[in-house]
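Dear Dr. H.,

I hope your travels went smoothly. While you were away I took the liberty of generating a structure for the chain from your last submission, since the lab meeting agenda had it listed for discussion. I wanted you to have the full record in hand beforehand rather than looking at slides cold. The sequence, exactly as received, is reproduced here:
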Amino acid sequence: MKGLAKTTLSYASMIIPSNDAFIGNHNPQGIELFDVAGNFNGKKIITILGSMVWDAGTELNTEMDAAFINQTAPNTGIATMCPVLPHPGYLGSYGNPGSDPVILGGTGPADIVFDLVAADLTLPYTVIARIIIEPVVAEGP
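The corresponding predicted structure, in token form, is as follows:
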């Protein structure tokens, strides 16, 4: 397949703040951007819901030493070797109640406050990201 251009899109990103939450598409060939002739298939809008967030299973979800909120140094969370599973939600969230919130209502760098409701990825139909793919029209010289 040497010389063929990539025709599909894959994405992955860590969710911050978190211990090890992430998003990514399941099928690296599933988002076709171009047809077999190399023509752009048209604008695509990919909406990522909170229900699509995964727990990598590499750190215990204590929310202590979580990236971009209270992490004291790299790799300081409590290490685990658990399977990748749907993320249960932040402590004290709609989907993970019963614990005192750390991230929800917390303050990160540059005094960014993580709102108790707006940052709750477990609320039904919560949009956490949107990827928009459209052609860019080049402007003249």
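Two observations you may find useful: The chain has one domain: 1-89+125-135. The chain has a mean pLDDT of 91.

With kind regards,
E. W.
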